[in-house]
Amino acid sequence: MGGKLSSSFEFFNSKFEFGVKFLGRALANVRQLRGIAAAENLKAVAEDTGLHYMGTIPKDPFDLFKNWHGQQTQNNLSANALCLSTCSKSGYVTSRTLILRRLDDDGFVIMTDNRSKKSRQLEENPNVAMNFLWIKEDPNGLLLSRQVRAEGSIKQLVEDEWIDIYEREPLFCKIRALVCHQGTKIEWQDLKDSHDNTLKKWQHGELVMEKPNHVVAYKMFPTMMEFYEAYGSKIADRVMFLKQGEDWISNRIAA
After folding, report:
1. pTM of the predicted model, to two decimals?
2. Which of 108, 133, 179, 201 is deepest in the core (most CB within 10 A)?
3. Which domain covers residue 8, as residue numbers?
């Protein structure tokens, strides 16, 4: 009888020890999970947030634009790409990416084909909008995002005001101006043949790459310029300039 009790006690004791160990492991796992959750909560609390501040704003928006544009150029990034939005007289809006050909103290100069849809819309409605978007990563892996929006009117420039821009164009751009009727239907091989023949004539000195009459330049004169700058996970800073007479009035606005 005593042997049976001893065996039963040993069996019960082993099961009890197993249960204690199992419960201990379970509690340890719970504490570990709680620790992970606490760490995640702490991470969320410690995550960078706040309001970004771009600093003192100059009185002239072109001074700020030149500063940002210069920084973008120094970083070997595409600083001159812009989105131009035009609108027909019937209210049909079109957007496309162009290249900023020249930055003046009072406006933005672009170049295009006056047989294009954009030129037709510009003739119907000179009110346009431009958008520049610049994004780069800093050494800490944080993104600095900058956007400049401009709204205003546009006018065609006389040739003497911008012919130097065309003269600096690379060869492929000058050939494109001669062989491409922008926006029209083409057969690829026909266009390729026209390109090759034009190039061959130029190489043999039979052709001078003069500017064709349909290549024109426009200048956009903004009456509104808006600067948006965001850094990391902070809420962006945003400043709007409105032109009143010869002066610019600036205000910070919510992102």
Report:
1. 0.79
2. 108
3. 1-47
